[in-house]
Amino acid sequence: MRNGGVSFWWQQVGLPTPTDLLDGDVTCDVAIVGGGLTGLWTALYLHEADPGLDVRVVEAEFAGFGASGRNGGWLSSELAGSAATYAEVAGEAGVQRLRDALRATVDEVIGVAAREGIEADIVRSGVLVVARSEAQRRRLGGELTADQVAARVRVAGAVSGHHDPDCARVHPARLVAGVARVVRERGVRIHEGTRALAVEPGVVRTDRGTVRAPVVLRCLEGFTAGLAGHRRDWLPMNSAIVVTEPLSDAQWARIGWDGAELLGDEAHAYCYAQRTADGRIAMGGRGVPYRFGSRTDVDGRTQPATVESLRSTLTDLFPSLAGIGLDHAWCGVLGVPRDWSASVCFDPGTGLGHAGGYVGSGLTATNLAARTLRDLVLGHDTDLVRLPWTGHRVRRWEPEPLRWLGVHALYRLYRAADRREDAGLPRTSRIALAAHRVAGR
């Protein structure tokens, strides 16, 4: 089994070699720090709105190196954050506007991919979320019975489920590589192999020179903590994925997963999965949730204990796959604000802006956030700039060792709550409710 190598998705596509490295000091109209989907979509939409803009992207590795090329491939309308948090500033109507915008964004991404010839194994077949205990059933409130769930996918112990049609399976590396190609074709320069060290009004200082621009946008998501002065802004939360060897027709028949719908569960320490285009199961979950000092992984490598935990989850869901080989494991980081809610911000006075904190629901949210950033930067008064995540501010995370202790305690509580519910507790465990309070969710 391969461990690391950025991700299975990138190994399938082929790891790119960084190109167009910054060579000394430059000036431009808009400097974007971070070559993931947030930065790339923002560059694309800004250039489409005003082709005369000189937009440049600064990326430490290569475009799509982070979560954009490592995620579970869920192009989902799931809310990127807490409905209660957004409702505090915009009410229930504001939350519904954000939900509607995210649902429309699923089609926006699919439409761009179709127009631009981005082949990313996209299948819009929805997501199936299953409940495997009475407590999960009550939380989920799904419309599917156990038999109806089994008619889609035979998940061991499933008692109910919910199918959301507004979700599509995606090959993450192919999507982000395609968007990067389109951005370059528009004339936007992506300075790969160029690490941003500090961001200030009008300036991005890198290890290869200084980029000066009246507009500087920070789009680093889980890597935000590596930028000077931003270590406590967003927590780099780890998520890991394993990919099986290709399943045989008989194995697929036993588990009954005939379609391309995505699969998740309603546990507190939840899992997420997809049936890949080449006939494997990619299964993800938290593993070791956080590294001390907001450190990130090396080349996507994850811990053996995390691999075994995900193997156990896989065979717990599908006992007939006991003993199946795993071909690849990797991990990445997602950006988590202190209140677990995303934000899109721009200050016309300083020219500084940012977007991110998607708490693991970023494949769709990156596109919506990018279009929102475009409108904020260009001063356009649109419905997007009035969404409740626009201008959202949140306090910083606690200093170490408090945040390491807090995050690891948090996930111990969630796992303890799952054990109690799996053992027969018919309602959401009070342990999980206490964990929510600690988390600030």
From TrEMBL:
SUPFAM superfamilies linked: FAD/NAD(P)-binding domain
EC assignment: 1.-.-.-
Record field: transmembrane: none
One Gene Ontology term of the molecular function aspect: oxidoreductase activity
Keywords tagged on the record: Oxidoreductase
Span of domain FAD dependent oxidoreductase: 29-376
UniProt xrefs under Pfam families: DAO
Highest taxon in the source lineage: Bacteria
Gene3D superfamilies referenced in this protein's UniProt entry, alphabetically: D-Amino Acid Oxidase, subunit A, domain 2, FAD/NAD(P)-binding domain
Name by which UniProt lists this protein: FAD-binding oxidoreductase
